[in-house]
Amino acid sequence: MSDTKIRLLELFESNRGIYISGERIAEDLKISRTAVWKAVNSLRRDGYEINAVTNRGYCLSEESDIISEQGIQQYLSDVCDDIRIEVFSETSSTNMVCRNKANDGEQEGYVAIASAQTSGRGRQGRTFFSPADSGLYLSIILKPSGDPKSASLGLTTMAAVAVCEAIESVSGKSCDIKWVNDILIENKKVCGILCEASYSIEEHTLFAVVVGIGINVYPPKDGFPDELKDIAGTVFSHSESGKRNQLAAEIIDRFMSYYRKATDKNYVDEYVKRSIVPGKDIEVHIHGNVRQAHALAIDEECSLMVRYEDGTAETLRFGEVSIKKAN
């Protein structure tokens, strides 16, 4: 996007729903009225709904919900000063974008955000349903120190709390967490989180961690696939102006606030409070094996303590669980 379009979009986003005269835009951006007209038309071709009224000027429609860096930046706090956002209308996978960027030397704080993914990735090698214009898919490059497994678990649980708080702030709806990475609203999954680590082969150390977050913001145009329609939910029942930008900003802001103070582990109590698995009979899925168990509690490291049918106990730091339905 050209510098003129970027600055114009920043102006529109900070005055969403307000008409701005072409004369004022030209003066603020120090460009000609012709350049204003060309930039407006270019943004329209990109999908932005920009209204024009004689003697009033131009206005970014309040109904517009296109994800943009400018739309997100206006909501971020100082904790995100070093965050660098790149927005894609569509990409294969934001996690893959970030992993490639990290391998090419991109530093911590790069965020890839997409409105659609063609090869969205979930846990256990599954695909993540990522249709256009209804979801929010974002990934962040981080370079934490310490043990890779501890880092990935901590970042996953940290992200889960940040997402819950962000959704509640933007929508007013309460969220629960199913260990380790599923966010639920009214017992339906609205978000999944996938952390992927990259390692330095030469130094045998953790090189970077990519935290990927996929959210069903609105119902998909053609509905959920049959295998998801009974278990997937959405944050909102219909599209609402600017909500995806606001939600993205809230997630990044809250996550980075926790990450900057990770040693405090001030997210753990909130994770435990929101967790619905303890006390339930569950199935534990690890490396293709399934075992019946009872979930006991979540410890201070956000690991899940379980007792199997044979009486043995284990503390899980990774894996997947499903809650058994009551007979």
Count of the separate structural domains: 3
- The CATH topology name of the largest domain reads BirA Bifunctional Protein, domain 2
Number of strands: 14
SSE order, one letter for each helix or strand:
HHHEEHEHEEHEEEEHHEEEEE
What is the percentage of strand-forming residues? Answer: 25-35%
CATH class of the largest domain reads Alpha Beta
Tags for this entry?
single chain; 327 residues; alpha+beta; Arc Repressor Mutant, subunit A; BirA Bifunctional Protein, domain 2; SH3 type barrels; 3 domains; 7-stranded mixed sheet; 5-stranded antiparallel sheet; 8 helices; 27% strand
Question: Would you give an account of this structure?
Answer:
The longest helix has 24 residues. The protein contains eight helices and 14 strands.
